[in-house]
Amino acid sequence: MAVRLPPFRVPTPRARPVPLALLLAGCLACATSVLWIKLSAIEPVLLTALRLSLAAALLAPWAVRDWRRRRDELNLSHLRDVAIPAVALLLHFITWIYGIRLTLATNGTLIVNLTPLATPFLLAALSHERVTPREWAATALAMGGLAILFASDFHLTPDTLWGDVVCLASMLLLATYLVLAKRFRHHPTTLLYVTPLYAIAGAIGLALSPLARSTTPVDWRQEWLWVALLVLLPTVLGHSLINQAMRSMRGQLVSVINMSQFVFAGLMAWAALGERPTVAFYPAAALVAAAGVLVAAPRRRPGKPAPFAPEAEG
Q: So what's the pLDDT on residue 111?
């Protein structure tokens, strides 16, 4: 007798506050990744490969269910579509882990949150979406908050310079990966997009992991806990929700709201690791929150959809 799977779905945005709440939940889940990465001693390529492969394995039963229902809408081009974002995500994870271990946590977090500066150009080039004046204003507001943190917390030294450069590359890879979710939103469901994406990225990572050996001793009895948390929270939940948001919401809105990760990460690092935020964190967080309110607030003019109204998925 066939086993009936419980529903696993990212709800479609019928009520406008719902997709916004799901996006914030995804940002909160993704923000936990810095905790598990800092606690883990696994070499970056292997940690990335385990994270992505296990995420794909967990999502596979629901993806197969969606495939059976929508197989008539699928062809080889859908599998080809996910290859480029899969490579971008794999390289983003590897460079993020590698870079954050070479520089200060504040430096890496600040640099990776510069994605709203890159996404307008990538959106125009890859998905023909133009940023609106309101989105530019929200971006400027959020960047103002980040500038406060840069002025107070960013420390450029010869010891951290290479790590900062790696984190900058990681930011560009993240922005590319996110915008490609917008470009390929014609995939029938989010699960049919992210599951093969995670699987391809994980398989490439596993193939590369023997080339990236580490002499750091690893206590696997403890490490499996950090791997499991990294798989379940920021990957299965966080990245899947953010991909859904990129498919159904305006790209720059998602990019600006995604900056809330540094607020969540700062508060969690304080609570879990005792890393108390600096005084500059609070006005910066307030400006990022204000930018999110500005970019997500519905327009009052009749006949104009709210910025977070769903778009057609092709």
A: 85
